[in-house]
Amino acid sequence: MAGVLVIEDDDRIRLALLLALEDEGYLARGAATAEEGLRAQRQEAADYVLVDLMLPGLDGFECIRQLRRDDDVPIVVVSARDDTHDIVAALEAGADDYLVKPVAIKELSARLRALRRRGRTAVAPSAAVPVLAFGPLEISPEAGEVRRAGQPVPVTRTEFRLLCELAEHAGRVLSRQQLLSRVWGYETGDERLVDVHVGRLRQKIEADPANPRHLVTLRGLGYKLQR
C-alpha cells in the first residue's frame, strides 16, 4: 500500500484529505507544519508528499526545496494560491505537480497513479542504447545518469524522464501536450509543467541557458533535443 504524507496546517482540510486518500486505498499520515513534515519524511519516507504553500514557520516553497534536497520523492502542491507566479515558483522549487484547492479527490488520485506509473517505468524505451550523446551532453538511460563534459548532472526523476523522451525522439519536435502525456501520464493538464521543467533542465545541461543549443523551443510547436 502506497504511503502519502500530507503537509497541511488547516486541520479540517488535512483530515479531509487523509480520510479521502484512505478511501482511495492509500496509507495516509499528516503534518501541520513544514518542520513536522520534514521530520516525518526523514524518519519514515512516504511514497508521495502533498504540500500546502501557506504554512506557519517554513513556508511550502522552502519545504519543497528541503524535501527535494533529501530525496526524489514525488511532490504535489495542493494550495489555494492559483497565481501563475506561485505555480511556477513551486515547480521551480522542485514540485512535480500543482493542484488548486478545492481538490477533487478522484483527480488527485489519478495524478498520484500517474506518478506511480512514471516511477515504475523510470527507464525510457531507449534504454537499449548505452549512451545518447548530444555534444558534451551524455544521457545513459539504462544507468539513469546524465553527464555534461564528463561531469555528472544532478536531475530529478521527472527531469530525467523528460530528457530521455526528448532524446528518444532526437531532432523531432514534441508538443507540450505530447510531453504531458508521455512523461507525466496526463491526457490533459497544465502545460506550464512542461515549460518549467524544460527551463530547469536548460539551467543544468546548457552552457548558455538563455541561448540553448541542444534543448530548443519551436515557437507554437513545442520542444526538441538536437545534436
TrEMBL record:
Keywords: DNA-binding, Phosphoprotein, Transcription, Transcription regulation, Two-component regulatory system. Residues 129-227 form the OmpR/PhoB-type domain. Pfam families: Response_reg, Trans_reg_C. InterPro entries: CheY-like_superfamily, OmpR/PhoB-type_DNA-bd, Sig_transdc_resp-reg_C-effctor, Sig_transdc_resp-reg_receiver, WalR-like, WH-like_DNA-bd_sf. The keyword Transcription applies. PANTHER family: REGULATOR OF RPOS, TWO-COMPONENT RESPONSE REGULATOR ORR33. This is Response regulator transcription factor.
